[in-house]
Amino acid sequence: MAKGRHARSRSLRVAVVALTVLGVVLVAAGGAAYSAFRYERARADRILPGITIDGVDVGGLTRAEAERAVSEHAASILARPLTVTVGDASWRFEPGELGHRAQVDAAVDQALAVGSEMATLDRFWHRFREHPVAADIELTYATRGPGIDRAVAAIADDLYVPARDAAMAIDDSSSDVTFIRSRPGARLVRVKAANVIRSAIVQSDDAVRLDLVRVEPEVTERSLGPTIVVRVDRNELQLFDGFEVVKTWDVATAKPGWTTPTGLWKIWDKRENPAWYNPALDSWGADLPAVVPGGPGNPMGTRAIYIDAPGLIRIHGTTDPDSVGRYASHGCIRMRNEEVEALFERIPVGTHVIVVGHRPAGAAYWDTPGTADI
Q1: Is 316 marked active-site?
Q2: Mean pLDDT computed over every residue of the chain
């Protein structure tokens, strides 16, 4: 009977010891867990060891420290020059000045988030033992703002060559015409150039070549069309097709005291059998009617071609064909009726009229260029 009581007492002591040991273990484990929690919490603002951003070791760094380290790394990349070549000319730009930026904040956010799904003790273990997590986070870049467009605009402006249209003009002495031949131009296609540069920056290229496109002239020698040239020194009217003379007629131009104005003019109207309105009722036209309707006896003959030169200047027919070829008008350009009719049919409104040359200094009324005393 005593033996059974002794056995029960011993079992009770064993149980108490076991419970005591378990309690100690649990208390120790709880203390360790609490200590680990406090350790981890105190270092939660630091990136886990072994983490890199674009190869830059940011393990153990705070946000500010990591952003500074990664920004310095990115700055060296953004400072690598990109050479843009067009023909024989070239420009150098740094990607940073073109608006290319590293997304440092987003990369550091990712680095800080690594381990967020780990248990606290796992994170503690990595930090306490400096056991690397071994994660490399990509540093991305983005291009924003007007930098590329501004650079392309500057290049385009430097290289732009406007196309030159074919034309006829007056020389510096106003005594003859000059011929301006057409010439193609060149320009940079800005949208395409900007896309090529943007792609080169993304791919970290150090050079890119752009091409100009040809700009065709709107007017060539073949498409120039008709031009009238009046030569006062010779009293001739020439009809050009492009740069070729296709017809020449004698004309009368201004007599002494009057002027057929030299210059580049344009036809603004054409009329058949025009009415003549007396422009000088108080002077040389005082003895003439105020208006002479179209038809026989009209001083402008059968056709009138109005040009925008000062002084109501017209190319017109006449009732006095003997005056043609002489210095005999008040400034207008007279032609024989059948000849002005032929010209009338061949030139549209808008045609240029170039008046060049000067009446010889000694020319008198009714003189011809060949008989003028020069």
Answers
A1: yes
A2: 90
Containing structural domain, residue 247? 226-356
The answer as to whether 348 is a domain residue is: yes
User: Whole-angstrom Cα distance, residue 193 to residue 148?
Assistant: 9
CB-neighbour burial class of residue 300 (10 A; exposed 0-12, middle 13-18, buried 19+): buried
Annotated catalytic, 100? no
* pTM of the full structure: 0.73
Which candidate, 220, 241, 276, places its Cα nearest to that of 347?
Answer: 241
Query: 124 φ, ψ to 5°?
Result: -55, -45
List Cβ neighbours of 331 (8 Å cut-off, separation of 6 or more): 253, 254, 258, 259, 260, 261, 311, 312, 313
Distance separating alpha carbons of residues 362 and 367, to the nearest angstrom: 9
- Out of 100, 126, 316, 352, which one is annotated catalytic? 316
Say which of 100, 126, 332, 352 is annotated catalytic. 332
pLDDT by residue (tens digit) across 296-321?
A: 889 999 999 999 999 999 999 999 99
The CATH number assigned to the domain holding 234 equals: 2.40.440.10
Residue at 164: amino acid letter: R
DSSP conformational letter for 50: T
Asked if the structure places residue 352 within a domain, the reply is: yes
Helix (H, G, I), strand (E, B) or coil at 324: coil
Q: Please indicate, yes or no, if residue 327 is contained in any of the structural domains.
A: yes
Total number of domains in the chain: 1
**113 or 321, higher pLDDT:** 321
**Given the structure tokens 């025009």, which residue do they identify?**
274
Within a domain: residue 206?
Answer: no
Burial (0-12, 13-18, 19+ Cβ within 10 Å), 149: middle
